[in-house]
Amino acid sequence: MRQRPNPLPRLYRWQTNLIQTPLFALITAAFGSLSLLVSIMDKKGNAQHRIARIWARALVWVSGSRLTVTGAENLGKHPVAVYACNHTSYMDIPVIFAVLPFQFRILARKQLWSIPFIGWYLNRSGQMPIDTANPHATLSSLGAGARALRSGMPLFVFPEGGRTSDGELRPFLSGAAYLAIRAQVPLVPLALGGVYELLPIHTHHFYPGELTLKIGEPIETVGMTMRQTDELTARLREAIERLCQFAPAAGREGVERC
Q: What is the mean pLDDT of residues 219-225?
């Protein structure tokens, strides 16, 4: 007997095109404009961060997914740290902002600064662009990141340097470890689950499901030297791999997903 095709993928596409994408654009434009206005008077960035958290939670809600956080107690163990997470989707940033309760600065690819509203917000809120194509510019960005850490501002980094194309961890760049060692602050591993399936790199449609963010134990760097950057990068990758949840992917059995 011939099986009927699954109607859900088509339903999700229509839902994305008719409801979610217009809402995403409206919410981002509204909160982005509000943040830009507030930035004129909000010199410390506290109000902008609260606006960003409301924006992020609204986008997670519009996506139709439920977010579960584990290990949240590890967020308060150190006032300043480098937070490093796997990069699975454009929805990673909203999930991160929805969860982290304190101000932080993102070290992100320079290309994002050219996107309307997103780029304006990144610039006005003090986020840090990194030009991976220019080694001298990259070193300068890392130096600025280290100074931010020493001044008391936590940093957030995607050590893979870009989104995964298949849901698996990519090779890690050494920037997160470099920053943590140079500033002598802890390196905190985080792992996102379900966000790749929500909005994979090859599609613009949302496929709602269970989202998870796991926060691991901080890795201490006090006493480490720059010669141990590669060693710390390997420890970070292993820590994120351990945090990854084990879940079957569509069409594949028993694939380790992050």
A: 97
